Amino acid sequence: MSKEEISKKIARYESFLHDKLEVDLKxxxxxxxxxxxxISDFIKLKNHIELIKSNExxxxxxxxxxxxxxxxxxxxxxxxxxxxxxxxxxHVQLTLDEAIAFIxxxxxxxxxxxxxxxxDIAKISAHIKLVYGALTDIxxxxxGEEVELRDDLFL
Length: 155
Fold this sequence. Notes:
This protein is an alpha+beta fold and about 160 residues long. It has a domain of about 100 residues. Helices cover about 65% and strands about 15% of the residues. The chain is built from two helices and four strands. Helix 1 runs antiparallel to helix 2. The protein starts with a helix and ends in a 13-residue tail after the last helix. The model has no long low-confidence stretch (mean pLDDT about 90). Belongs to the UXT family. One of its GO terms (molecular function) is transcription corepressor activity. This is 15548_t:CDS:1.
């Protein structure tokens, strides 16, 4: 194999590694991280609801973030119902018990989705290791060692 062919193989592997695999890995990491934040928000909400229930609070005074860490005092005159974002920015009025049941189901669904992202991250990482191995093989070729090049690594 000529040096020009080897250089083309190296460029092809590096391009695939940087332009496809590393980009996919970062996107998947970011999506999973966003899911973890959503799970955390639901857990906080559930804890607040349980606190309201356990203390049998009929009204509530609290501080509400109106954006950019600016807080205002808020008074909730009746804690019988709560509005929960159920997705796509739809808010549904639920009783506290209904909200807890919804949150528990939502948590399970989000954990399943995050598990899928974790599996995807593992697959992409394995592909990255394969490509690095192929690059190592190509570099060994340049040193004169006998190596069989693979073209089946590209997705």
